[in-house]
Specification:
Distance between the termini: 17 Å
Radius of gyration: 12 Å
Number of strands: 3
Order of helices and strands: EEEH
Strand order of the largest sheet: 1-2-3
Largest sheet: 3 strands, antiparallel
Helix content: 25-40%
Structural class: alpha+beta
């Protein structure tokens, strides 16, 4: 699975940082990253989705 259309993305700004949470609604797998507020939403979204897809692949390879 690739692309942000399949995931839920949430942004929370705290001072000079932005917490980005990405959730796969099918597996209910959730990851978060924290980045600088100076970065674009598109960049932060890509980073969060990369991490989510890594975790999904890791779970799949582990059999769970």
């Amino acid at each position: 699975m690739s692309g942000t259309d399949n995931y839920i993305i949430e942004f929370t700004q705290v001072g000079g940082s932005v917490k980005v949470t990405a959730v796969d609604p099918r597996t209910m797998t959730e990851v978060s990253i924290v980045g600088g507020a100076q970065y674009s939403r598109e960049f932060l979204t890509r980073q969060a989705v990369k991490k989510l897809e890594y975790m999904l692949a890791k779970k799949r390879d582990a059999g769970g």
